[in-house]
Amino acid sequence: MSMAGNLRKVTGLDRVGGLRRMARLARRRPRVDLSHPARSPLGTSVVNCVTYHKGVRSPAVRDVVEAVKQVRRHDHGFVWLGLHEPTQREFSGIAELFDLHPLAVEDAVEAHQRPKLERYDDTLFAVFKTVCYVEHTELTATSEVVHTGEIMVFVGTDFVITVRHGRHGSLGPLREELEANPEQLAKGPAAVLHAIADHVVDDYLNVTDSVQTDIDQVETDVFAANGARVDPGRIYQLKRELLELKRAVAPLARPLLELTSRPIRVVDPEIQAYFRDVSDHLLRATEQIAAFDELLNSILQAHLAQVSVAQNEDMRKITAWAALIAVPTMVCGVYGMNFEHMPELHWRFGYPLVLGVIATACVTLYRGFKRNGWL
User: May I ask which residue range the UniProt record assigns to the signal sequence (predicted)?
Assistant: First the structure.
C-alpha cells in the first residue's frame, strides 16, 4: 500500500476512540517527509493554494507539497491554502502535512462551531461565523432574513489554511485586496487572520444595516392606521432571525479579546493593534443587535396594545348596537304577550305612540353612545 493509502488509513479512523489514537500518533510522529512525491493532499475541496514571499504572490506551484517545500527551503514567506467544505478523507493529508491537531481537524471538517480561538503549540485555530442578508421582496412570517456559515482558520509560522462552510463568504475578493497591499501581506499569516476577521465583522455591520430596514418597515406598518391588522408572525420571524445573528456575533468578542490582549507566538504585536479596530467594529454590531432586540420587543408590545384597543372598540360598538336593539325588542316583546288589558291597547293612537317611544329611546341612546365614542 502507498504512503498516501497509509495516510488515509490512519486519518480515516472511526469516531469511537479515534481521536485518542490520533492524538497519540500526533505526539510521536515526525514531521512529514516533503521529499516523498506521492504525498499530495490536494483534493476536490481545494479552492486555491498560493505562496507569498515578502507580501508578493509567487508563481503557481504544482501542489501544496511543492508550495510548502519552497517556503521552508527559503525560510521566509508562507502558504495560503483555501478549502471549501472538505471531507475527512480530503483533509486528512493536509492535517498530516501541517501537523494539525486532531481536535481542530474534526471541528474544521464537521463545522457547526461557535466562534472561538484555540492554541495548539505553534498553531492557532480560529472559528468565525459568517452571515449574509437574504434579499426578499416582502417580509413574511416565514421569510429567511439571515443566513450563516463558517470560516475556520489555521495559522502557523509559515502557513494559513482557511476552511469555508456555507454558500457565501467567499475569500476570493479578500485575497485580491491583500495582494494589492503587499506591505500588509508581508507581515505574515497573522495579517491574513486579521483580514479575515475584519472581513467577517464588516459583513456583520452590513447585515445589521439591512435588518434595520426590515425593522423600520415593520415599525411603520404597525403604527399605521390599520396597524392592528399586521401579522405578528412577521415580528416573531424578525426576532428569530435576529437571535441567529446574535449567536454568530456575540461569541466572537472573547476570541478578539485574546488576540488583542494576550501575547501569541504566531501573531506579531504590530498585528494585534489591528485586531483592536476589529473589536471596536464588533462592539458596534453587538450594540446594534441588542438595540434591535429591544426595539422589536417594543414594537411587539405596541402591536399587542393596538390589537387590544381595536378589540375593545369592537366590543363597545357591539354593546352599543345591542342596547339600541334591546329597546324595541323589549317593548315589542311586552305588547306581543296578547293580554287583554294593556295600556293604550284600544286607543286609536296607541300604535303610533309606542313607535314614537321606541324611536325616541333609540335616538337618545344613539346620541349618548356617539357622544362617548362608542359608535
Answer: none
Sort strands 78-84 and 123-133 into parallel, antiparallel or unpaired.
unpaired
Q: Cβ(217)–Cβ(139) under 8 Å? A: yes
- Whether this model's pTM surpasses 0.85: no
Secondary structure letter of residue 146 according to DSSP: E
**What percentage of the chain reaches a pLDDT higher than 90?**
29
Q: Is 65 left (phi over 0), alpha (psi -120 to 50) or beta?
A: alpha
Which residue type does 70 have?
Q
pLDDT reading at 192 higher than 90: yes
* Strands annotated E in the chain: 46-53, 56-57, 78-84, 116-120, 123-133, 146-155, 159-165
Query: Cell digits for 101?
Result: 491537531
- Within 10 angstroms of residue 287's Cβ, the number of other Cβ atoms is 11
**Distance, CA of 108 to CA of 104 (rounded, Å):** 6
Question: b/e for 310-346, b at 16 or more Cβ within 10 A?
Answer: eeeeeeeeeebeebbeebbeeeeeeeeeeeeeeeeee
- 36 pLDDT higher than 50: no
> pLDDT tens-digit profile of 49-103?
888 888 888 887 667 888 888 888 777 789 999 998 888 888 888 888 898 999 9
Give the chain's domains with CATH numbers.
3-306 (3.30.460.20), 312-371 (1.20.58.340)
Bridge partner residues of 133 (DSSP): 146
Sign of CA dihedral 301, 307, 310, 315: negative
Alpha-carbon distance of 298 to 293, in angstroms, equals: 9
pLDDT single digits (tens) 271-324: 888 999 999 999 999 999 999 999 999 888 888 887 777 777 777 778 778 877
d(CA 127, CA 196): 11
For 197-255, how does the pLDDT look when each residue is reduced to its tens digit (9 = 90+)?
999 999 999 999 999 998 998 888 888 877 667 788 888 888 889 999 999 999 999 99
Q: What are phi and psi of 333, to 5 degrees?
A: -65, -40
